[in-house]
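Weekly structure sync, notes
Attendees: PL, DS, HV (note-taker this week)

Item 1: Glutathione transferase
DS walked through the input record. Source organism listed as Coccidioides posadasii. Sequence as pasted into the shared doc:
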Amino acid sequence: MAVTLGPSSPDADIHPIATGPAKEIVEKHSIQKTWIVLEEKQIPYQYIEVNAPLDPSSLLSPNPRGAIPTLYCPQPDGSKPLYESNIINEYLEDVFSSHQPHLFPLDPYKKARAKIWVDFVTSRIIPSFNRFLQAQGEGEIAKAHNEFLGHLKEFIDAMDSSGPYFFGEDFTMPDVALAPWAMRLWLLDHLKGGLRIPEPGEGGEDEQIWERWREWVDAVGSRNSVANTLSEKEYYLPIYKKHPRLSDLSLL
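Item 1 (cont.): predicted structure, written out as tokens:
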């Protein structure tokens, strides 16, 4: 992860470059969901690093929210911006439909279901992850922990039982949507006493759910598009400790 920093920046002490496999692709950070799609579909792209909160770059000025990711799309009257990672990902899937793999199922019903669960990640899982990360005090932490695990279990229960991905053998947009957060859940071990998912054989009535979860995490984490867009763990923790109230952790 890289940020453009001046000497007086409050983030000047945060590690400034991508590390590990992510460094092999680009020596900077990205919004990982869209980066995963670009890598999965092998879409040629130019990566431009912008630190949105500190750098009011002209690259962001056409975006009314001044947010990242921003994708500049060639149009007859010039390049036009798109923003919001889920919208960008749908656009990339439509425009580069000849690029494999298809990240939405071709079956209309399954495609609609995929969109439902992408939205579930965005509207339920990620906000509850943020609340868990921000919770203070034993009671608030316990409530946030139960809420987050409840949403996670609902997502797992909707998965195809054959695995390893959400729709079985095919890696699709619901997997993309959750992957960045799933790969960062280890942070909770350092910040909130851990996620406390039961160990194998200790899940009780939820044993099959957590077995399916471990299968999914292993499969998603081993995909090149996910592994190669992660920095080394040691550089994430200082960011989360410094900014526990980040409203959009996809920035990491």
